[in-house]
Design a protein that fits this description.
mainly alpha
Length: 98
């Protein structure tokens, strides 16, 4: 049985769809240098990340993303652009693996 495709992704689980939406929101927050939104989305992604513990590739990519986004949040607003690309790369990697 083939699963329907929505926006280029197969709908394999609600957790995957939710994670994709949260990753996009985190990406938007980082791009707009919105620390409070970035923190909020990072916390929400952490809550859903446990659903992917059985997939070591996704789990590892999420841990790297958490590390980069944590550094982004800890960096002063004026200097966040230096860490922004690491967060965006981490988001892209997780989405590729989904």
């Amino acid at each position: 049985m083939t699963r329907p495709v929505i926006y280029g992704f197969k709908t394999e689980s609600t957790e995957r769809l939710l994670l994709q939406a949260l990753l996009k929101s985190l990406s938007d927050a980082v791009s707009s240098n919105d620390g409070s939104a970035g923190d909020r989305y990072q916390r929400r992604i952490r809550l859903i990340a446990r659903h992917f513990d059985t997939n070591p590739l996704i789990s590892d990519a999420l841990e790297r993303l958490f590390s980069a986004s944590g550094r982004w949040l800890a960096t002063s607003t004026a200097k966040r652009h230096e860490v922004e690309q690491q967060v965006q790369d981490g988001i892209e990697r997780v989405i590729e693996l989904l």
